[in-house]
Design goal:
The protein is α+β, with helices and mostly antiparallel strands. It contains 8 helices and 10 strands. The chain is elongated.
Length: about 260
């Protein structure tokens, strides 16, 4: 006799993805009372469909999915919307396709370039602005720089295989790299440039949080303002303990995850 299936808000029973898969949420998001919203049942079915289609596969239209699962198009729309926010689906033109795996970036003193190359992707950057200004009080308090001393501000869009995946703002004292505007290729690694100048990293403090992009940031990265972002603040020092850089890195939450090695 087959095992009874979980009722789902008076909808027909559904089969759920393997709840014990490594990294899967406990009970695949099903609450203890065993009832879930209708859209979530549809989301589980679409998630199973993604495994069949594979990366780059085009999912059926909202109308087709609604007919297949016998639900309203708005129910399908909500399910697809969540899968897009999670990075499992991507909008492409007028269609929606299965996304590839997220880029995994280590929380370490490695550059963005190194992290992306290790995953077989081609890193790149598009220059937004490179200017200089007197160091303001908040930046001086954070970094230990002197208030009023000249500071470079380097802002670039981060690319992976020509896809816009983030936005990076770097602040560094002009005295450390006086020819940054003349010698530095904005599409290259800033850390590589510093190494060529004989500057080595010693240590850094990082803080990670989730945010929503501002309208300007969303426009530069090419994402909807409602897309969750991962924001990393970093303050770096050289091997002598002197302040080196202050970096604000904004990454698409649907395209990035981060790893860290911990040792007791």
């Amino acid at each position: 006799m087959p095992a009874p299936r979980t009722p789902v808000c008076d909808d027909p029973p559904v089969d759920y993805p393997n709840e014990q898969a490594p990294g899967a949420p406990v009970r695949s998001g099903i609450p203890e009372h065993g009832r879930i919203p209708k859209y979530y049942a549809v989301k589980a079915r679409i998630a199973a469909l993604l495994e069949e289609l594979g990366e780059g596969g085009v999912i059926p239209t909202e109308r087709d999915l609604a007919e297949r699962y016998d639900v309203a198009r708005e129910t399908v729309r909500q399910a697809v919307r969540e899968l897009v926010l999670e990075g499992r689906l991507r909008r492409r033109g007028r269609g929606t396709v299965v996304a590839g795996p997220k880029l995994t970036q280590p929380l370490s003193l490695a550059s963005y370039t190194e992290g992306v190359r290790r995953q077989g992707r081609t890193p790149g950057r598009a220059l937004v602005t490179l200017d200089r200004f007197p160091c303001p009080d908040p930046l001086a308090a954070e970094t230990g720089l002197t208030r009023g001393e000249p500071v470079w501000h380097l802002e670039r869009v981060l690319l992976a295989d020509d896809e816009r995946v983030g936005l990076e703002s770097t602040y560094v004292a002009v005295a450390r790299v006086p020819r940054l505007d003349a010698d530095f290729d904005p599409d290259s690694s800033f850390y590589g440039y510093l190494a060529a100048q004989g500057i080595s990293f010693g240590d850094a403090d990082e803080r990670l949080e989730t945010v929503l992009a501002t309208p300007r940031e969303a426009l530069l990265i090419g994402t909807p303002p409602a897309l969750p972002m991962l924001l990393i603040h970093r303050i770096s020092r050289d091997t002598g303990g002197r302040p080196l850089e202050r970096v604000r890195s904004l990454y698409r939450g649907d395209r990035f995850s981060f790893t860290a090695h911990l040792q007791g």
